[in-house]
Amino acid sequence: MNIYGASGHAKVIIDIAKSCELQIDAIFDDDLQLTEVSGYQVVHTLSNELLRRGTVLAIGDNRIRKLVAEKFEGKFQNGIFHSSAVLSPTVIIGAGTVVMSNASINAEVIIGDHCIINTGATVEHECQLGDFVHISPNAALAGDVIVGEGSHIGIGAVVIPGVKIGKWVTIGAGAVVLEDIPDFAVVVGNPGKIIKYNHLENE
Q1: Domains annotated on the chain, with CATH
Q2: Is 125 a catalytic residue?
Q3: How would residue 202 be classed by pLDDT, with cut points 50, 70 and 90?
Q4: What is the DSSP code (8-state) at residue 162?
Q5: Quick one: which of 108, 110, 109, 151 has its CA closest to 132?
Q6: Confidence of residue 200 (pLDDT cuts 50, 70, 90)
Q7: Which of 4, 15, 97, 137 is the most exposed place for a label (fewest CB within 10 A)?
């Protein structure tokens, strides 16, 4: 597999790959000043042969990850998960999604493409996550939560059962979400309150 991006997020994906004995063929980055990450050489072009192999986008920003995914001409890697993560056999995970160490994903969860389920996060039964979602470390989604495309659930945030979170929402660290959240909202606090709305061009 290839890793697109040579920042700190790439280091975590390298650890995931090592934990499940996936071979890393190349690490690619557009920044010519980046030459090495975690002992691996960084390349700045991908051959046609490498483009035919699966690639994971090591880009933490949801919006940038989407833009890169839309332009990338190669094949995306199937979802990968750290060997310490616990996944129900009924989970469905999209292409390019990464599940980090000690995360727990339970029965009949559906996760879209290019998502990040970060360290120690919990995604309970029957949740549905759209493409490009990021669930931060130690965040917890209770059962039957829906999270729209591109939304970011902050570190340690909690979402109660049955809540629907719109697309491109930001839930702040430690927030407790008790009710549905509309698209583009920024939510903080306990209980979670909308403080403003994200402005995203072309949405």
Answers
A1: 2-76 (3.40.50.20), 80-197 (2.160.10.10)
A2: yes
A3: very low
A4: T
A5: 151
A6: low
A7: 15
